[in-house]
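Deliverable D4.2, example record:
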Amino acid sequence: MANISTSEAIESLAAEIGENVYIDVAKWHLYLSNAHLHTVLAERLYPMLNSKSLNEDEVLKVLQSIPVKLGGGKREVPLADLLPMQCQVNLMDILEQFQRNL
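Output generated by the structure prediction step:
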């Protein structure tokens, strides 16, 4: 992965996140690619990976900082509140693997 551009790396990271991480609403799994949240998440997390400074607390802060609009925008909930614990673990695994390959 060393010779690809930043935008290609972010797209690759976004695709991996979008296919493997979902939000859970009333036991419905909505993958982040379908919710159009995978790219914004990848864009915010990539600098951490590129600088080799991946940290679970910082990832959680990023997840907390991304609002997800519900009910046509009547309410906003942080992305962190919609991800099941297993998806947070999967996200960290994806990020660790991606950082190793940079």
